[in-house]
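tool_call predict_complex ligand=2'-deoxycytidine-5'-monophosphate
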Amino acid sequence: MSTNIAIDGPAGAGKSTVARAVAKELSYIYVDTGAMYRAMAVHLLHKGTDLENAAAVAQSCQDAEITIAYENGEQQVFLGEENVTLQLRTEEVGKAASKSSPNPAVRQKLFHLQRELAAKYDVVMDGRDIGTTILPEADVKIYLTASVSTRALRRYKELLEKGEHCELAQIEKDIEERDFRDKNREISPLRQAKDAVLVDSSEMTAAEVIRRILEICKEKDGR
Ligand code: DC
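tool_result ok
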């Protein structure tokens, strides 16, 4: 049977950096579920679907052929034959994913893909509802968070490094709004699973968080 580690938490808590490193250390596969929601958003944008129209989104998502492959340990996301991995991290796609991901039909489609991967492989899977909905029986569950101000500052520095102009106050506001949406949506809202271990990374470096999660995995393993 495969071993599954679920890492959930709000946007900007550092889930992907940490999940990728933990997966590498344990020789597991890293599954970035946010990328799947983003790929679905690319599909909907390609089709020109009105993202405010839930019935249209539910209809349009049905023929999305999203598959995952791994190249040198890195997740690649395909829409049909096309590798869309490099298209996923833009603001436009992020916004579209945020609008379409609460749709039950979208979640239902990706639920099966995520469960299949977890059944087949040892995985570190990150997202919003992995420990609560996708893999309620996961061997280890982590809820990784950080204060709004810490997450905003991290994002601010990231954007500055990319040479993008931005206002820290605006980023904080965006993060608060996104948290509100993620936590208050009807289906699969973001929340800590009862049996998840809380890790607050506000005062921790990425290396410290990775070490802490590896320790938690060892403790759970009884070693
Ligand atoms: O983590 P991210 O920014 O790549 O996620 C993109 C969008 O998908 C974001 O709006 C939250 C949503 N998402 C979700 O609803 N459930 C998940 N398991 C992962 C992401």
